[in-house]
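Whiteboard transcription, Tuesday session. T.W. wrote the structure tokens on the left side:
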């Protein structure tokens, strides 16, 4: 089966093995990761079309297996349309805690090859293997070792791209999926990318692509006609990087450190056009408690919060400040209620979002000295301990008995450790 057989030996030109690379970067890209994990867990699904949705209630496809893609099913497609294209499609509710656990195993295994690993997302990682080349016969051998290591750690396949910079390596990883292996030596990267549309490179979206098209830059080879200074004046240092990316010389390094959080937030889609205040309050409490619990889990506090309510065509947002920095969900909820009272005029809502915009480390005691807040802190400690053992929101405010049955999702910025590890093994599927 394509998602379970050991990695295959793709044909690689023999001349690629003869010379060490001045810089060697690998991008590991898991093949239809969520679906592959589910097919591994359910052997009877291997080789069959599988679609992952956000819970059994989900009507939009998060991702799908390659068997489903071959039938015309795509990410973002409505389930009803997907069944029309593929009547034998298997719907599977997402299990984010399972995917996070498998991803963590994969990322840990990659550290046995090189310490220079950047977790780019839950199913992608960059490796700088420049210093590893003396330990192996060739760049190709390292790339194959990476594929085998991922398979041994997870039982599922990945595609690997390898080049002299991050952007070209990421582009290479997309070329022969699934179970692909594509090597682009750094001295050939510029020529390789010459006819590649600039918008196919990671980081060049339609907006920047439109700006480049207005200046006659459609494919990477056109970039030589545009002075680097013009991009620098328009976009600053990112503009300079874009210019080099198109030359196959992306200067960005593999980043191994996780930056301190600039914000910590949680949001949730609610039933379309919700006007029932009690339902909205339940969602706001749910998100407030999630933000508070996450702040406490990473020994952080915050004083400034952004509360946002999404209508059909805009966001109702306000910035609130607590009297002192806090990590308590109930205090955050009170701020949310104030925004609902002051700024909401009964419009139908589609989503709520609560974000702590200035998370900071807790140095010693929290700056909350009243007897009431002391009791809250003790209550939170007990609640966190119980929830850590039995599952998220096993113990929670009574209003949350009516919370959404949609499960958690993995944020794009997920990391296997630190403040971005927002999906735990103990999470229940009730959330």
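and on the right, the sequence the group agreed on:
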């Amino acid at each position: 089966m394509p998602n379970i057989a050991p990695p295959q030996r793709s044909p690689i030109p023999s001349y690629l093995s003869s010379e060490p690379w001045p810089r060697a970067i690998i991008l590991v890209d898991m093949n239809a990761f969520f679906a592959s994990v589910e097919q591994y867990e359910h052997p009877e699904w291997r080789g069959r079309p599988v679609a992952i949705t956000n819970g059994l209630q989900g009507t939009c496809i998060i991702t799908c297996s390659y068997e489903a893609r071959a039938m015309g099913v795509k990410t973002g497609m409505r389930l009803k349309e997907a069944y029309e294209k593929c009547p034998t499609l298997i719907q599977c509710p997402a299990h984010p805690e399972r995917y996070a656990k498998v991803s963590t195993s994969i990322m840990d295994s990659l550290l046995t090859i090189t310490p220079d690993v950047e977790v780019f997302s839950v199913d992608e990682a960059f490796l700088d293997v420049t210093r590893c080349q003396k330990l192996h016969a060739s760049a190709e051998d390292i790339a194959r070792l990476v594929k085998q290591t991922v398979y041994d750690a997870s039982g599922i396949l990945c595609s690997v791209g390898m080049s002299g910079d991050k952007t070209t390596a990421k582009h290479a990883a997309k070329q022969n999926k699934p179970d692909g292996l594509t090597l682009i030596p750094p001295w050939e990267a510029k020529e390789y990318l010459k006819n590649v549309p600039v918008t196919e490179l990671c980081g060049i979206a339609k907006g920047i692509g439109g700006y480049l098209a207005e200046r006659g830059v459609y494919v990477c080879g056109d970039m030589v006609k545009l002075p680097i200074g013009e991009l620098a004046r328009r976009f600053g240092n990112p503009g300079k990087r874009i210019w080099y990316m198109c030359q196959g010389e992306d200067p960005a390094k593999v980043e191994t450190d996780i930056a301190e959080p600039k914000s910590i937030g949680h949001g949730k889609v609610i039933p379309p056009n919700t006007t029932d205040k009690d339902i909205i309050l339940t969602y706001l409490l749910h998100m407030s408690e999630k933000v508070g619990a996450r702040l406490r889990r990473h020994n952080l506090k915050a004083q400034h919060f952004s509360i946002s309510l999404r209508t059909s065509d805009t966001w109702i947002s306000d910035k609130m400040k607590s009297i002192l920095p806090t990590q308590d969900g109930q205090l955050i909820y009170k701020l949310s209620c104030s925004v609902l009272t002051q700024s909401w005029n009964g419009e139908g809502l589609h989503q709520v979002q609560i974000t702590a915009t200035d998370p900071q480390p807790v140095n010693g005691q929290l700056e909350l000295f009243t007897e009431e807040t002391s009791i809250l802190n003790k209550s939170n400690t007990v609640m966190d301990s119980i929830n850590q053992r039995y599952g998220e929101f096993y113990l929670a405010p009574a209003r949350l008995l009516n919370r959404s049955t949609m499960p958690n999702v993995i944020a794009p910025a997920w990391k296997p450790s630190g403040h971005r590890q927002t999906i735990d093994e103990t999470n229940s599927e009730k959330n």
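Someone added at the bottom: Confidence is low (pLDDT under 50) at residues 423-431.
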